[in-house]
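User: Predict the full complex structure for these chains.
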Amino acid sequence: MKKKLVEYMGSSTVAQQFTYKVKLDAKNEKIRRYAPLILLIVMTIICASSQKSFFTWGNIVNLMYQMSIPLVISVGLTYVLLLGSIDLSIEGVMGFAGSLVAYLVLNRTNSNNFGIWGIIFVIILCTLVGAFTGVLHVKARIASFIVTYAIGCIMTGFAVLVYNSNPIQVSEPLFDSISRGSFLQIPYITLISFLIFLIGAVILKYTAFGRAVYAIGDNEVATRSAGINVDLVKIKVFALCACTACLAGILQCVRLKIGQSSLGTDQMFPVVTAIVVGGGSLYGGKGGAFQSFIGVLIYTELANWLTLMGVDPYFKEVILGLIIIIAVTLTIERNRQTISK
Amino acid sequence: MTKKLNLSDISYSFSKYMYIVSIVLVFLVFTIMSPQFLSLYSLQNLALETAPMLLMSCGISFVIFTGGIDLGTGSIASCTCVITGLYVSQVGNSIILLMLVVGCVMGVINGILVSKLKLPSFIVTLCTTNFWNFVALRLSPSGSQIIPLNKRSMVNWATKDVIGFPVIFWIALAITALLYFIQQYTVFGKTILSVGANTRATRMAGVDTDKAQIAAFVICDACCALAGAFYAYKLKSAVPTVGLDLNLLSIAAVALGGASMVGGRGSILHTLVGVITITAVTSGLEIIGCNALWKDIIIGMILILAVCLNSDSKGRDLIIK
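Assistant: Here is the predicted structure of the two-chain assembly.
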């Protein structure tokens, strides 16, 4: 560290200092790009060595099934983290979506039977909630973590209110056929989640909206000066995040056939970890759909391995916390004068 | 343009007096809806409910004044509540001091991670929360455990009434007064607020901002640890889930007290009023027979409304993330 500083300060001309800085940036960029891939390979080797049947089709399908819900959440959260914001309302929205959809489709508690229309209604409602969060964040100028935290608590409250502390059992035949059905041994839930991920990835990579998200995360002032409606993009991102959280909640409900607020419990934190491990930055502008995919894959393998090793499930959360702190510390840009608050 | 300016002026001056308006409004509404809300019994109960909340909110005020946030306050309270509940019968009342030390250690960990490694405080506290939760749930895996009946005499002093109100309420009030004095009349208190207002300028003025941030977290987490111990005394049991909704309540109380969430503005005295308002709302809802499930929703809305009114709409060039 000291040697680096000497090298940096010792350079006599501005040009030398500049070249040094550019070199350092390039190096950091390289680490950011390849470290997750190396980590993935290492994790795969560890898993394969402790589990003989790791490379069988059955196990790979199982792994894909396990990563399907985090993958859906990661789609929206990637956008939010690219902005440099955070969405803590995901768990609440997931629980609410799962509970409401169970309330609206064929179930054992009431006589509702809206079928597919119920699902569409829930998706629209949750997207509107997300848009409302975005409006509060942008127009009332409240930091995203506090407004999403409050919205998350409110949504959890509404979720419990929907089923009145008596979880709803779902008996919808559509849910049954989705959760049972499979194509080439791959369950429909996995296919649906990968489809959602693909749509999210394409929007992020190939549309003006997606590029605007990157631009805002990198330099908000410059983006505003370039004539992009920053506020609108942010509102759209929060709406999108709530929409994917809602889809994840519905998929959880399809999978477990029960509607309750705990469908969302402890779902957000692993995904934040996964995205950061995959190369995303909590300060915005870094990362992408592919990186998030790698991150989610690493997380799923790790979670699998920890379960295999018989690690206490609560301690698993502690390990995730440690990983996130290490990953954020390593990827923080120290030359950008950050103020931590 | 002028109309817009006026509007923000009105909201600004309202946010200054919001804590007074809200407490009067809350007490008025609940007294009209149910006259026994202002009875002595109900007020004593309110004081008992307020005591641990007061500690937590005053503690987290310091972190919010620096512009940070602590999302782990509830888990710290759960953690120390479990430890106190399980071991008070063996260690005795000195366990409160022990919990204070534990809280300080937790605060140092959070503070160093935030200030030295320059990580955002919400993510740090979210990560460390997992650890406190792990301790709480591991020590008391089968839910809450009561303090054995033959040891009850040891903890009963805390809820005895002195001059009309329970002992822990007086202790919490004394600590609040101490924190108010620190915040209002010492250099350290002023430093905390100036770190929140402008970290870079404060650092350039020669103040060790890292130390101030760490100290803010130490005060916050020590207060939360103490609040957890008080919960064990109050409930006479070790409850690993006691802190679940305390996070939201304590942050909402600070916001209602008119503190700015980006830091630099607020007062412990206003937080005190905010805490009384929030506990009045929660216990008032119970008295008028409102469904308990509405509590979180209403408190969440109060939080958003309070933060909206407090948010500084004047500094337009500041980027909010």
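The radius of gyration of chain B is 20 Å.
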